[in-house]
Specification:
The structure holds two protein chains of two kinds.
Chain A lengths: L1 H13 L4 H15 L6 H26 L2 H11 L1 H29 L14 H25 L2 H4 L2 H17 L14 H9 L4 H27 L3
Helix pairs in contact in A: 1-3, 1-5, 2-3, 2-5, 3-5, 3-6, 3-8, 3-9, 4-5, 5-6, 6-9, 6-10, 9-10
Chain B lengths: L1 E7 L9 E7 L5 E5 L6 H9 L6 E5 L5 E4 L11 H11 L4 H14 L15 H13 L5 E5 L7 H16 L3 E5 L12 E6 L2 E4 L10 E3 L7 H10 L3 E7 L52 E6 L1
Parallel strand pairs in B: 3-7, 3-8, 5-6, 6-7
Antiparallel strand pairs in B: 1-2, 1-4, 8-9, 10-12, 11-12
Classes of the chains: A mainly alpha, B alpha/beta.
Chain lengths: ~230, ~300
């Protein structure tokens, strides 16, 4: 399965189609950090929100780069479960690369600053919370991107619709006072939680919420792929 | 391997492509899937290979190692032939050195040496098809599924397909082949599955009614007369082609499947070699042109 992950990552990187989401991500981060300096945890919380649709789009591109027949060849060789898992794993690895860029980027452009006052979080804690926020967004984004991939949606139009609905839904349903916040992954609630002191139970709840959301959407992806090779 | 009560449709409310399909095939057996275009041959093969999941029913006892040669190899990939095959060998679970050996073996055998460093999108259709064939054979398949394997292949590679099928069968494998061009006369021992109107039926065991292909070489000037004579004798002339250099015999004459029923080529050569013109003395009556520059009608009865 690891060999298939490598093959898919190589296909994604060599076709140059990796460039579009990377540029979009950099652009979004540039806009985000262009306004001045912020505390790392708070800035990273917003960065994870901004990157959520980018990571989902990147996942869709990675899964769609491979021709349909090549995906079926992999299915014959490895079996359906491992073929699916290899695609998701490849998307997660590519997503980790984007997350790493997102964590380093603000330090290069002076978008974040270390603790300046007595109430500020220590730097290490800010970085750790930033990593946590991005790692919460990643599985949900991979799941959304997988649900939008060509193997499931079969047409570019439906694919874009799923991606847009998911991305906009995560923002709209994540606003404070939302009527159905559980329908969206907790990217905005996480960003809000990082703006102030974060209690451990809140952190655990957000983690469980993000993982449960991703699990439900991935189950939908797996179910959809049963009859869509 | 068995397909038990298999139904398949591609969309929830779409038409059934296959209905109530029950077929079984054992180790060492080859079945040719026949039928018109769009009738569901590829669908049946993809169900057997595990590409498609039956909407109803099930596929049981499918061998673990399946090699599938799709009708069109997906050449739109950013890899060279060598890199792609090496990656597919590793995907199939072959460890590094073994994967390299398997790639070298099939690259040599299919004449892909000079394409080793060529990127897949730059390949001709036939060469891409050979890569498709190679990837299915890197790991010795317990089930080999060939969807129109002769499509786009040159003469030498077309002759290689029955050879490969024989090897898979000899190792206890099972082979399924679809074909709409009549090339499967090259597989005389095969069972015939016919797909029509969503159902698969098996033709009665062929036995004495089996036909084989015998290639002959005749002087170019005498082609019309030879063809007419063969037809008058009740033989079916499949085609007439140029024959510049006689290719080497590619299979042992002792192969029991090569036995041609006495009679089909009476007076036209020695029945004993199937698939290739026999350069031996038995060919003398019709091989007038030394060096084999004549034409070779293929005949079958």
């Amino acid at each position: 399965m690891i060999a298939l992950v490598r093959l898919r990552l190589a296909g994604f990187l060599r076709t140059g189609r990796a460039l579009a989401p990377v540029l979009a991500g950099l652009l979004a981060l540039g806009v985000l950090y262009g306004g001045g300096r912020a505390q790392p945890a708070e800035a990273y919380g917003v960065s994870a929100v901004v990157l959520f649709p980018v990571l989902a789009w990147q996942t869709k591109i990675l899964l769609d780069v491979e021709p349909d027949v090549q995906r079926r060849l992999a299915r014959v060789v490895l079996g359906p479960a491992r073929e699916r898992a290899a695609g998701l794993l490849a998307a997660a690895v590519a997503g980790l690369g984007t997350v790493a860029v997102a964590l380093v980027f603000p330090w290069l452009v002076g978008g974040v600053t270390g603790p300046t006052g007595p109430g500020d979080r220590p730097l290490a804690e800010g970085l750790a919370l930033g990593l946590w926020a991005h790692l919460l967004a990643l599985p949900a984004a991979v799941a959304l991107g997988a649900l939008a991939c060509r193997a499931i949606t079969r047409s570019a139009g439906y694919g874009v619709a799923v991606l847009t609905l998911g991305g906009v839904g995560a923002l709209v349903l994540g606003l404070s006072g939302s009527v159905a916040p559980w329908l969206a992954p907790p990217v905005l609630p996480t960003a809000r939680a990082l703006a102030g002191p974060l209690a451990a139970p809140t952190g655990l709840l957000l983690t469980a919420w993000a993982l449960a959301w991703a699990a439900v959407v991935l189950a939908g992806y797996a179910w959809g792929r049963r009859s869509r090779a | 391997m068995r397909l038990e009560g298999v139904w398949l449709r591609y969309q929830r409310r779409g038409p059934w492509v296959l209905r109530e399909t029950d077929v079984a095939i054992g180790p060492g057996e080859v079945a040719v899937v026949l039928g018109r275009n769009g009738v569901g041959k590829s669908t049946l093969l993809q169900l057997a290979a595990g590409v498609l999941r039956p909407t109803r029913g099930r596929v049981v006892d499918r061998p673990a190692a399946v090699g599938w040669v799709p009708e069109r190899f997906p050449a739109d990939q950013p890899f060279t032939v060598g890199a792609y095959l090496a990656a597919m060998a590793r995907v199939a679970g072959l460890p590094g050195p073994e994967a390299d050996r398997a790639v070298r073996r099939w690259v040599d055998r299919l004449g892909l040496m000079r394409f080793h460093g060529v990127r897949l999108p730059e390949l001709s259709k036939g060469t891409a098809q050979k890569v498709g064939l190679a990837q299915a054979l890197l790991r010795p398949p317990g089930l080999l599924v060939l969807d129109e394997p002769w499509e786009g292949l040159d003469a030498a590679a077309r002759d290689l397909v029955p050879e490969v099928v024989d090897e898979v069968l000899a190792e206890g494998g099972t082979v399924l082949v679809s074909d709409h061009r009549g090339e499967t006369v090259r597989l005389p021992g095969a069972r015939h599955w016919s797909v029509a109107d969503g159902t698969v039926t098996e033709a009665a065991p062929s036995g004495a009614a089996a036909t084989v292909v015998v290639e002959l070489s005749v002087p170019a000037a005498g082609v019309a007369a030879a063809v007419a004579r063969l037809r008058a004798d009740g033989h079916h002339v499949l085609r007439v082609r140029d024959h510049a250099v006689p290719p080497p015999a590619t299979r042992p004459v002792s192969d029991s499947r090569l036995a041609v029923p006495a009679g089909p080529v009476s007076g036209a050569g020695q029945p004993g070699e199937r698939g290739r013109p026999d350069p031996g003395p038995g060919e003398a009556p019709l091989s007038g042109a030394a060096g084999g520059s004549g034409s070779a009608p293929e005949v079958a009865r």
